Amino acid sequence: MLVEWSTAAVSPPKRFEEWREVCCQQVYALTPERSAREPFNGQLRLHRAGALDVADIRCDGHLVQRRPQDISTCPSDTYYIYMQLEGRAWFEQGRRHQVTEPGDIIIADPNVAFNTGTDGTFNFRLWRLERSRLEPLLARQMTALPMIKVSRNQGEGALINSWLDALLRNYATLSGGGLDLAFGTLCALVANMAGLAPEMHERGRLGRRWEAPAGENLLVSMLFRDVPQSPHVLTQRVGLAAISACQRVAGAKPMLKWPNDLLLGGAKLAGILAQASLGTAPVVVVGIGLNIGWAPEGSACLGAGIDPLELLSALLAAYDELPADVWLQYRQHLGTLGRTVRVELPDGELEGRALDVEPDGRLVVVDECGITHRLAVGDVIHLR
Fold first, then answer.
1. Which 8-state DSSP code applies to residue 324?
2. How many other CB atoms are there within 10 angstroms of residue 185's CB atom?
3. Is 47 exposed, middle or buried (CB count within 10 Å of its CB: 0-12, 13-18, 19+)?
4. How many domains would you assign to the chain?
5. How wide is the angle at C-alpha 8 spanned by C-alphas 7 and 9, nearest 5°?
6. What's the pTM value of the predicted model, to 2 decimals?
7. Which residues constitute the domain of residue 223?
8. d(CA 215, CA 302)
9. pLDDT digit string (tens) for 21-76?
10. Fewer CB atoms near the end CB (10 Å): N or C, the chain?
């Protein structure tokens, strides 16, 4: 079955709203945002092929979010393969950040909240694979498939690209058994890609690992079943609890660096990472790596002789003592505020002065031209 839709027949003031409704009905429940005032243009062409759907989407640039409330309202029974056809886009899911160029493929789970956007034009192909067909083939049990980026021009990515194109050209003439076999082969290719992808072995942001000699540092993950509407609150709470624990156990007074690092004497003491699984029984896992007796070159540590278990006990106790709303406390301990910073973004970098942090966790930065930016993602470097 083929579905085609365009904004051309819609009056300009209503185009973006209509686009949102069509995408929510035909693709996923999403929350698009757009600040531009020019008339919006978009085209969608959707093929439905049994256990496999493919959508060709071309539209003006805007921000797209799939929020926890979108997922709880309309969970998906598919995984998606995003294929960049033209232009440049960025993705943020959990603490994974990717920038896609023409020829890149993203494989990800739409039941984990994500943001994506572009300053130019979106032009991509989106394939949806039935979850029930892919999950039994994965090499290990996972609450969510990590976001994987591969090139469609080499290795397994080239095989997946070729197989997808062949399926699209021939699905109408394949028998039921032939289509099932072809789809099974595609799922096996994707599952193999998931097993080979370096993202499967990450423990920190942007591919950084948390590694330390045995017994020297605190490396721990905590599972939260009571998931707040904004999961970033959990990393804020863990960061504040870690500050309190360092003060109680080691007499140290670290500060927070946006969004989720602890600094001591200007050097990194700890990193915090959250990974959400927001299906029928939502959970968030928050991990922290805190340097106690050992630190990589250029980083800080609390000092030898401190028991990691004692520090963990103090952290958990401090967490339980926190008030329900920690925004003001987080803001008070955020050493990024008032500083000149450089923020490395998925699509470039920004330099300016960090003025504030909003209750939703966004950092407010004013650049040298006086333009205010509200940032949801990025790596911050304190300049002065």
1. S
2. 13
3. middle
4. 3
5. 90
6. 0.49
7. 207-335
8. 14
9. 998 888 888 988 887 778 899 999 988 766 678 899 999 888 899 999 999 988 98
10. C
